[in-house]
Amino acid sequence: MTPTWIQLGYLAAAVCFILALKGLSGPRTARNGNLLGAVAAVFATVIVFFQQDLDHQVPIIAAILVGTAAGALGARRVQMTQMPQLVALFNGVGGGAAALVALLELNEFHEHADVEWFTAAATVFTIAVGGISFAGSLVTFAKLQELMTTRPVIFPGLPVVFGGAFVVAIALCVWIVVEPSLWVGVILALFGLALGVLLVLPVGGADVPIVISLLNAFTGLTVAASGYVLQNTLLLVAGTLVGASGTLLTILMAKAMGRSVVNTLFGALRGGSTLGAATASDRPVRSAGPDDVAILLAYAQRVIIVPGYGLAVAQAQHTLRELVDVLAGRGVEVDYAIHPVAGRMPGHMNVLLAEAQVPYEQLVEMDDINGEFKQADVVLVVGANDVVNPAAKTTPGAPIYGMPILNADEAKQIVFMKRSMRPGFAGIENELLFDPKTTLLFGDAKDSMSKLLNGVKAL
Predict the structure, then answer these.
(1) pLDDT tens-place string over residues 434-457
(2) 305, 353 in Cβ contact below 8 A?
(3) Positions marked active-site
(4) 3-state helix, strand, coil in the chain (%, to 5)
């Protein structure tokens, strides 16, 4: 029987995980929430060494040290724009580890004649879904890192191949539950890997971050299942928390994109996914220089900033904050309008702007600020595109049709800061660029922002 003090330790760690999730729900408490979760994870890991006499302690400790060093190095070096890729890698590693543990447990089944069918079912679930999460996460990483095309990859017969592989995987699961066998488990793991690749290949463009969140939920569920197999309550609790939060995040992201999760995964097979086109438009637009835009901003009474992924790429957030400070000093009312999926994941822009010491009070969520665009003299769009594209409201055939957007088109003047006329992540043209009220300021966002700042200061 597990000693009481160990059970209390696990209970304390589980409570810390719940409090960590609560902390991560707000920008003010996110840092402490993250720290609390990390401390609880370390504490829970240490407890395992006192719970039972572990074999192979030296290689276990060596593996922990290598993993810790790799994780710390990767986390410190990763750029803000690469956070989704980092999340994808962590998802994949978690799912793969759970699958490997389940395979090892399956190998032990022959020593126990009384293995319950539910334990066997939890084991095969962990093997199959862990394999899907591992392989799928690697493909999403490759897409976001542009190691492969970011467009959906489909080929004739893909639905048949996917469906066939899924049926075979189910049959292998039943086989193992009825008659546990390691080599059948290995084949099941291979089918899980194949299903992970086939599941993610048809996803592209703006849908990839949603799939990362879905795979995160898969990883959480596999960890919970492995906790049941290992009879470890803390793993069961932690995995359930990750699975539930990942599922909710997936649903919220899909809702923010105006799409269902099923449509996100399989929309490309019906031609309905974000295709990630890369052709730049040659339609005429109205453009201006930094000095002209500086005059617009300096003499406005109400300005709304719409930040996007391009701001993070250019690392212009500090200069933007300085510009807003100068405008506020001139009596201009300025807010940041935050779309739920601005950047590439929820909270991406909040973290980016918090890094630049932007006050939380200036960050206004979409539902709260959409009614204020009509009163805005100028909307400054910095590195965003799809989240202000009117096609989401006006063009039924558009891939983003139905996605809630920021009502930037209702402002009196719109200024887009862009490098070129290439489309956004969804790969479709933005009609707002050709609106008579719209002015484009071409160039690198950081360089243009510096010129804007100097222009406003000179007035």
Answers:
(1) 999 999 999 888 899 999 999 999
(2) no
(3) 386
(4) 65, 5, 30
